[in-house]
């Protein structure tokens, strides 16, 4: 099995506070990996280390085959990232946003052009190419943000609570996009607060107080915690 | 390099599509310079005065005519009693009262000292001072003319001439100040705002996770503002030259070079502020309090540094705008070459390098955290 993320005793301390306490896990290629935990459990800190934004205090991790300590620049080229704010430039048009992200990932003009057409067609948003992003409905923005995060064909896409504040139908559609990307071999690393979404993941890890308290497939977790839903698993774990 | 140009182009989209930004960028300089040039002035034209002439003789009448003929004063009211004068000030009818005693002409011609009293409203000391100075000068001139007929034994006549700004036009003072203020505003405040905005919207995270180097992000952010600040410099110089006839004696290139150094310093301050803030609102407040206030108050722009308390004089030494204003005045009005202002230049360059390094270090620390 090919692993695209491997963390070994990964640790981050802020002064005397240990945000991430020696976590170890691996993510397979093409997997949808759910990264769960209550607020303040250390999810964001762990994710910042994996995306090359923050140096670990101790431990090792490799992402897409590169070391997070020594090769963060290489990692940045091979991952995509989408934050909970869908972070697009609202005062730029759809086309300009695509153009800008294509450029900061160093894609050539012809590649950007052909990929733009392809993306607009897939999302069926060709009609709004010249409209400002601010004028788009939330669901469209979200799907565009995901499309941009994977625009440069990254091996892994990190999604930080990508469905916050979005209605259930839009969330469903969004997960269909995630499945399609995973089918093409892209690894998805996703944090979420919605337990129904945890069920959609291939495997789920649950962080509690800086540690990974559980890691298995959703059905495996439900079996071992004798729970009917992921919700129940999460509550049992979070309450200790 | 390609990603850098894409970044700069994106910044220009932001700037050109935001009406408020455009207004601050290009409306503000013109409005400020015109406001300062026309409205905020130390010169007086036709200030309303009131006269209580108790003597009403030929000499007093001529003196009053002379005051009016100067163009600085216009006779608005005549009064008959001290009470009336008092009330006039309370109602703010007049800016200055001239009180001439009953025996004015008689005293003067009998060879003794004839007094007149000038009363001004002390709640506005600058105005009061200027008015009294103007009036005294006119009275002295008047006296000299009178005594030409009957020379007095002792007389010192002062003939002063103000070089570089012979008419003491206050706009000469304000142009360098306004330029400083505008460059500070555009470079420092706008930069800190635009970086804070990316943080607020979450797009900064996206940029940091991308392969863009922090250097590219910063340079891409500030490059448009360097260009716009230089354009602003030219606009301000053009307005002051063509509208207010402020001379530009020195080298235009030296002026632009000076401005560029100051712009870089202000940009560094802007970046520094943005590393400390996460919202546009706090970036704005910090810019206004930490940058604009000292620039206005302690740089010698509005209040002369020589007349400040000693502590503030020392404090003014760490205000970059002070050195910029000194150099601007020297180059613009006196035509000084670089050799005459190298002292100030070294200080400003030093500050620029210092703030650039400091902001760079701060930015890197934020990334590592």
UniProtKB/TrEMBL annotation, chain A:
A GO term for molecular function: ATP hydrolysis activity
A Pfam family it matches: ABC_tran
Keywords annotated in UniProt: ATP-binding, Nucleotide-binding
Ranges that cross the membrane: none
The keyword ATP-binding appears for this protein: yes
Xref: InterPro entries: AAA+_ATPase, ABC_transporter-like_ATP-bd, P-loop_NTPase
Database matches in SUPFAM superfamilies: P-loop containing nucleoside triphosphate hydrolases (SSF52540)
Stored SMART domains: AAA
Domain ABC transporter as annotated: residue spans: 5-234
Designated name of the protein: ABC transporter
Native organism: Flavilitoribacter nigricans (strain ATCC 23147 / DSM 23189 / NBRC 102662 / NCIMB 1420 / SS-2) (Lewinella nigricans)
Automatic annotation (TrEMBL), chain B:
Subcellular location: Cell membrane
Record-given protein name: Multidrug ABC transporter permease
Family: Belongs to the ABC-2 integral membrane protein family.
Entry's transmembrane regions: 21-40, 171-196, 225-244, 250-273, 285-305, 311-328, 340-360
Pfam families: ABC2_membrane_3
PANTHER family assigned: MEMBRANE COMPONENT OF ABC TRANSPORTER YHHJ-RELATED, MULTIDRUG ABC TRANSPORTER PERMEASE YBHS-RELATED
Entry keyword annotation includes Transmembrane helix: yes
Membrane topology category: Multi-pass membrane protein
One cellular-component annotation, GO: plasma membrane
Keywords: Cell membrane, Membrane, Transmembrane, Transmembrane helix, Transport
Domain ABC transmembrane type-2, chain residue ranges per copy: 116-366
InterPro entries named among the record's database cross-references: ABC-2_transporter_component, ABC2_TM, ABC2_TM_bact-type
GO molecular function: ABC-type transporter activity
């Amino acid at each position: 099995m090919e692993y695209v993320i491997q963390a070994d005793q990964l640790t981050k301390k802020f002064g005397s506070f240990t945000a991430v306490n020696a976590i170890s896990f691996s993510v397979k290629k093409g997997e949808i990996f759910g990264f769960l935990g209550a607020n303040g459990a250390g999810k964001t800190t762990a994710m910042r280390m994996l995306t090359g934004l923050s140096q670990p205090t101790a431990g090792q991790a490799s992402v897409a085959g590169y070391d997070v300590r020594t090769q963060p620049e290489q990692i940045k080229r091979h991952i995509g990232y989408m934050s909970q704010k869908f972070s697009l430039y609202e005062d730029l048009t759809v086309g300009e946003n695509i153009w800008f992200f294509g450029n900061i990932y160093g894609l050539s003009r012809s590649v950007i052009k052909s990929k733009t057409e392809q993306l607009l067609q897939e999302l069926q948003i060709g009609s709004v190419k010249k409209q400002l992003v601010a004028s788009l409905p939330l669901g469209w923005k979200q799907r565009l943000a995901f499309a941009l995060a994977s625009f440069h064909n990254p091996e892994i896409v990190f999604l930080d609570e990508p469905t916050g504040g979005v209605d259930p139908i839009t969330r469903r559609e969004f997960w269909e996009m995630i499945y399609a990307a995973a089918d093409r071999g892209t690894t998805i690393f996703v944090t979420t607060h919605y337990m129904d979404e945890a069920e959609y993941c291939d495997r789920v890890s649950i962080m509690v107080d800086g540690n990974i308290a559980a890691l298995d497939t959703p059905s495996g977790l439900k079996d071992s915690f004798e729970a009917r839903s992921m919700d129940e698993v999460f509550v049992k774990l979070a309450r200790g | 390099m390609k990603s850098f140009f894409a970044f700069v182009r994106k910044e220009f989209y932001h700037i050109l599509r935001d009406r408020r930004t455009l207004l601050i960028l290009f409306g503000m300089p013109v409005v400020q310079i015109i406001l300062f040039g026309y409205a905020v002035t130390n010169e007086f034209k036709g200030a309303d005065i009131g006269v209580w002439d108790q003597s009403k003789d030929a000499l007093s009448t001529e003196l009053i005519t002379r005051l009016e003929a100067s163009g600085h004063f216009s006779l608005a009211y005549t009064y008959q009693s001290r009470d009336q004068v008092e009330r006039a000030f309370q109602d703010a009818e007049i800016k200055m009262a001239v009180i001439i005693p009953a025996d004015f002409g008689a005293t003067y011609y009998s060879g003794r000292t004839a007094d007149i009293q000038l009363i001004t409203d002390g709640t506005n000391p600058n105005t009061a001072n200027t008015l009294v100075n103007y009036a005294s000068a006119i009275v002295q001139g008047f006296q000299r003319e009178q005594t030409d007929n009957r020379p007095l034994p002792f007389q010192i006549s002062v003939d002063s001439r103000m070089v570089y700004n012979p008419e003491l036009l206050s706009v000469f003072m304000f142009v360098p100040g306004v330029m400083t203020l505008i460059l500070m505003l555009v470079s420092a405040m706008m930069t800190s705002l635009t970086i804070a905005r990316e943080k607020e919207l979450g797009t900064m995270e996206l940029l940091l996770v991308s392969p863009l180097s922090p250097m590219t992000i910063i340079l891409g952010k500030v490059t448009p503002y360097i260009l716009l600040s230089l354009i602003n410099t030219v606009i301000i110089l053009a307005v002051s030259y063509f509208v207010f006839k402020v001379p530009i004696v020195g080298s235009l290139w030296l002026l632009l070079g000076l401005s560029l150094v100051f712009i870089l310093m202000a940009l560094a301050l802007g970046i520094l502020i943005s590393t400390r803030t996460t919202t546009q609102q706090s970036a704005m407040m910090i810019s206004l309090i930490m940058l604009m206030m000292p620039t206005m108050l302690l740089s010698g722009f509005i209040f002369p540094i020589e007349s400040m308390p000693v502590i503030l004089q020392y404090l003014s030494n760490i205000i970059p705008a002070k050195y910029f204003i000194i150099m601007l005045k020297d180059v613009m009005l006196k035509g000084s070459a670089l050799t005459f202002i190298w002292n100030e230049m070294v200080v400003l360059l030093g500050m620029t390098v210092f703030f650039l390094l400091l902001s760079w270090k701060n930015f890197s620390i934020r990334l590592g955290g």
